[in-house]
Design brief:
The complex is a heterodimer. Chain A is an alpha+beta fold. Chain A has 6 helices and 3 strands, in the order H-E-E-E-H-H-H-H-H. The chains are: A alpha+beta, B alpha/beta.
Chain lengths: ~140, ~400
């Protein structure tokens, strides 16, 4: 299968690879996907509790090139955004930016889920009411 | 010496035509274009002589006689003719066929079709090493069994079956024995007498011959095998396969067999050295890599390795200047790891991460080293990206985790 130039670029030079301390109260961690499905994404964000701005984002992904590119792009996009702005990122935005073919749309869905899961973890740590964490995972 | 990219290392899928083979074929596209069935002029005689010469070259490679070679369009047709031809011819005697789960689709799909027509098929399981258990085979044979069809060597994992032992059991029980020899003929010694083979499928393009030509060995003595034809129209090939013969293709197949026979001893030694160099170089630099299938009973030029915690498609993307095959085709629509690896009991996670390397006549040591370096480099990089590798290193048991997307 032919990949778009943007997917290849993210695959070759993934942004923000790595891990943050998951025990840090300012860090939210999202782990979505499953090994037997061929995709697992871990997305972590460090959020300033005062400004609610995402100051750092890191990812690790087990999956195809499109999954790696989707999560790499997601970390780029969330950095500098507020929690609320980040939650408004839709998987269709990722599909458009990376020109993902229909068989790879699930990669973008997973990236959106990872953002939501990470921020829901952060909110929980802040003692905020959770925004139905199961919802994202149940969709696919 | 500079390496020319991309590197072809997928020689179980197909092989390039050997220049010597192409050279032998060329006159039969040009001035020697005759129909080998034309009995009354020079053009026909020349073509017929070439076909008979090729029959001899093929027969010699497998210790058969020329009259036992039937030309086909390829090994898929050979296997169809062998299985369907025996099934129809010996319907009165019985309706039971025995095969095994890691066969090529040419065998499995043919057997599935026969099941629709009322035949019974036993699909023997394989052991962890990829070989069938002979006791399973003995137990599966009934008075209704007319055919055993087992491949010589597997196309994904290169595992060689205990063919001579199976041949003895078949003979003892009076059951015909068909062997899909596509990956083995020309690569390792295949002897229809010693191995007790009654029918043998052969392909041209896996042995540096052309595509679109194959052969079926059909035993004429002890016992004589009769086949119902599946293609009618003129009674060529002693009634077993009608249709004007593909003379240039047949000449190429014959020449390819002759070269294989002359060079097998040195070539297989050389290929197994290259294969071991590739395997050792990859596996000494990476932890948690696993060879799929028996190392002891294996084609000299095959290795199939799973790389834990790395997804197959992303690995292939990272080594896109190297042509190899992955055991996985992972998209949201078809999430199917290789049925061969599954049959060996390889877990889905590892089946998704497997790569098949098929080294061929024209690969060099420099190419092998380049491939090994690229694989090590890419797997290392992807593992740095892999949350699963990180978790495994932290001591998390991934198989016991609850994953969110399991319902997908």
């Amino acid at each position: 299968m032919a990949y778009s130039d943007k997917v290849v670029e993210h695959y070759k030079n993934p942004r923000n690879v790595g891990s943050l301390d998951k025990n840090d109260p300012a860090v939210g961690t999202g782990l979505v996907g499953a090994p037997e499905c061929g995709d697992v994404m871990k997305l972590q964000m460090k959020v300033n509790p005062e400004t609610r701005v995402i100051e750092e984002a890191k990812f690790k992904t087990f999956g195809c090139g499109s999954a790696i590119a989707s999560s790499s792009l997601a970390t780029e996009w969330v950095k500098g955004k507020t929690v609320e702005e980040a939650l408004s990122i839709k998987n269709t935005d990722i599909v458009r930016e990376l020109a993902l073919p229909p068989v790879k749309i699930h990669c973008s869905v997973l990236a959106e889920d990872a953002i939501k899961a990470a921020l829901s973890d952060w909110k929980k740590k802040q003692g905020e009411a959770e925004a139905k964490p199961a919802e994202a995972a149940a969709r696919h | 010496m500079a390496i020319k990219l991309p590197i072809y290392m997928d020689n179980h899928a197909t092989t390039p035509v050997d220049p010597r083979v192409l050279e032998a074929m060329m006159p039969y596209f040009k001035e020697k274009f005759g129909n080998s069935a034309s009995r009354n002029h020079e053009f026909g005689w020349v073509a017929e002589e070439a076909v008979e010469n090729a029959r001899g070259q093929i027969a010699r490679l497998i210790n058969a006689t020329p009259k036992e070679i039937v030309f086909t369009s390829g090994a898929t047709e050979s296997t169809n003719l062998a299985i369907k031809g025996v099934a129809e011819m010996y319907r009165e005697k019985g309706n039971h066929i025995i095969t095994q789960v890691t066969e090529h689709k040419a065998t499995l799909d043919t057997c599935k079709r026969l099941e629709k027509y009322g035949y019974e098929v036993t699909y023997l399981p394989v052991e962890k090493d990829g070989r069938i258990a002979l006791d399973d085979l003995r137990r599966a044979i009934t008075p209704k069994t007319i055919l055993i069809s087992i491949m010589y060597a597997n196309n994904e994992i290169g595992v060689v079956q205990p063919i001579a032992e199976i041949g003895r059991i078949a003979k003892e029980k009076g059951v015909f024995f068909h062997v899909d020899g596509v990956q083995a003929v020309g690569k390792i010694p295949v002897d229809v007498q010693k191995d007790g083979i009654d029918l043998l499928s052969i392909s041209g393009h896996k042995i540096y011959g052309p595509k679109g030509v194959g052969a079926l060995y059909v035993r004429r003595k002890n016992p004589r095998v009769q086949l119902s034809a599946i293609i009618d129209g003129g009674g060529h090939e002693r009634g077993m396969r009608s249709g004007t013969l593909n003379v240039p293709g047949i000449v190429g197949l014959g020449k390819a067999c002759e070269i294989c026979q002359n060079e097998m001893a040195t070539e297989s030694k050389h290929l197994s050295q290259l294969r071991d160099r590739l395997k050792d170089s990859i596996m000494s630099h990476l932890d948690e890599t696993f060879v799929n299938g028996s190392m002891e009973h294996r084609l000299p030029h095959n290795i199939n390795i799973s790389f834990a915690y790395v997804e197959g498609e992303s690995l292939l993307m990272g080594i896109n200047d190297i042509a190899v095959s992955s055991g996985s085709a992972c998209t949201s629509a078809t999430l199917e790891p290789s049925y061969v690896l599954k049959a060996l009991g390889v877990g889905e996670d590892l089946a998704h991460t497997s790569i098949r390397f098929g080294i061929g006549r024209f690969n060099t040591e420099e190419e092998v080293d380049y491939v090994a370096d690229r694989v090590v480099e890419t797997v290392t990089r992807l593992r740095e990206l892999s949350p699963l590798y990180e978790m495994a290193k932290e001591g998390v048991d991934i198989s016991k985790m609850k994953w969110t997307a399991a319902a997908e």
